[in-house]
Specification:
This protein is of the alpha/beta class. The chain has two domains: 23-352, TIM Barrel (Alpha-Beta Barrel); 356-420, Immunoglobulin-like (Sandwich). Helices cover 34% and strands 23% of the residues. It contains twelve helices and 20 strands. A hairpin with a 5-residue loop joins strand 17 and strand 18 (403-404). Helix 2 crosses helix 9 (207-214) and helix 7 (137-150) packs across helix 8.
Amino acid sequence: MDESKLKAPFQWDNYSDQPAQLKDKSYKKQMRKKELLSLIKTFILALFILPLSLIMMPFVRRKDINSNTFFSLGVDYQREPELTLELLKELDVERILVRFKLWEMETLDELKNFILANEGRSITLKILQDKEHVEDLALLEKDLRAIFSALNGLVEIYEIGSTINRAKWGFFSVNEYSRFYKTAYDLKMSEFPHVKLIGSGVIDFEYHFTAHSLFNFFKYRYDGIAALLYVDRRGAPENTQMGFTLSDKIALLSTMIWLSPKTKNILHITEVNWPITGTAPYAPTSEHECVNEEEYADYMLRYYLLAFASQQVDSVSWHQLIAPGYGLIDNRETIKKRSAFYTYKYMLKNLKNAQFLRLDIKRDYYILQCLVDNKLLQIHWSLKPTTLQNEEYFEVFSRDGKLIQEDILEISSSPLYIYIKGTV
């Protein structure tokens, strides 16, 4: 957790759990000039791959997504570890994502003990890079060997690297990332053939970088693709960016994965959230992108519902359980469970064994339908507030699980769970 462990000009921001902005402009200019050839490749590949993927989008079939492993939650093994275990038990979470910093190798035993304490849960380990490991591939191989050996059989998936299209994270090109990932892949093939490696790790809707990471001449393969598919700068998850909703972004990314010769047809969204207003300096973005706690809970649930309805995403990891600026729990002065904690808990209770049926959208009114224990469940929300008659065969619950018995249901941006009685 010590900022000094990252070598200058890089620094770690303990408030927002990410690197600080690079202030050395001459260093950034020098590194980008060094990687100019790769940046040109990114541009050229995007010119071909993105239009082709758009054309092929209608031909990509949905998969049969297992709801038991779809819902994942990011946790920090060094932040309130005992409380974390208690909260995971309360939420009944079966899949978690843990981040590990390569510049903190001395905490590997601490990580292992935390993972052992989560026996029975599926673990994804996101391995975060620093510039030293990006440039010294022999050091990277040595430390990855230590990680794979120590955690042998305990981790289901390793995400190799993260946020490859942000210089503050240590990568200045896709080629740099490809050399980094290939080191892990070569080690897997020679010594750890059973491990699963996912990668690419592009943040936001910047699919020109994704195109380069999925279509290149490096000799490696992914066991699946990791994406940090944030949409917080556009507000609600249904909002558009360049004409693309969240559902459209997922469909385009899934098409690129389907077309790529370098990966299995598996997609994990390994990081997403919204920053919470009034939490600076803990919020990872400016106040402009921040939302209040009720919006945060609504957006989180709707993001999960839309991703699940796509039937193209194998898991979504919310980032994360405990974090003052963007987590389900605020631990600044005392332990405060935000509304989103209860939203996440009720979502899991209803959907972790759900079978998706369909998603209907009409005039900004959404109805997701699925089977839960042989009962028909409809989840309603609307971007334009409206009403619905509460029928006698409805059993209606609020976003957080409160029974609603009013004759007229208020359908708003906060989803309602409606079980249809008598369905089998």
